[in-house]
Amino acid sequence: MKVNFFVTCLGDTVKAEVAKKTVQLLEQLECEVIFPERQGCCGQPALNSGYIEKSKPAMKSMIEAFEINDYPIVTPAGSCAASVKKYPHYLEDEPEWAARAQKVADRLFELTQFVVRQLGVENVGARLKGKGVYHPSCSLIRKLGVREEPLILLNNVEGLELLPIDNQETCCGFGGTFSVKMSEISGEMVTEKVQHISAVKPDFLIGADISCLLNIGGRISREGQPIKVMHIVDVLMSR
């Protein structure tokens, strides 16, 4: 199967290994990966701050970038996927663009969603010995409805034991610009999240959104907790 890869800003500039391993995983699953070079920022930071009109040029540029073919679009970031899937709503006062946005949104999948639901793969042959906590990001479970797919893949990782924690689906406090505008509240939220994680003494914290992992991982580091922070694709590519 041919697929387009939507790298996202964080994957491009902060966590290049996540982007690299996503491509490697897709190729391992016999996908031919295409990288539309015109892609850029999906506009999420500005959109979340309410700058809809000023974000429209970025949205239209993204739509044009992924109109080069009709193949599925795969990204390792639920938050960016959720942002693009709202393009038709943001562009509803421009029907032609809204229709084009809908066609792009319909082809867009978060990585674990694509692997499990589109490729029908539940075991990628990964091996990682230890105990882990999975953090279900708000973008995945609330905006995209992707709840079971990451767990299906993680439960098939040889040697990995997933541990439940209190308030597992509670927000980590990042929320994009929320963590800047409401920094004190955000700080308390991530502190509580790390308390619940550290209480079960895991070897790994695993998530499918880079932004959440940066937020939680920063707190874990500041507290000196011996917990390795891993994007789910890091786990799925472990051997």
TrEMBL record:
Name the domain of life this protein comes from. Bacteria
Gene Ontology cellular component terms for the protein in this record: cytosol
Q: Where is the Cysteine-rich domain?
A: 3-84, 133-216
Q: Name one Pfam family in it.
A: CCG
Q: Which GO terms describe its molecular function?
A: oxidoreductase activity
Q: What InterPro entries does UniProt report for this protein, alphabetically? A: Cys_rich_dom
| UniProt-recorded name of the protein | (Fe-S)-binding protein
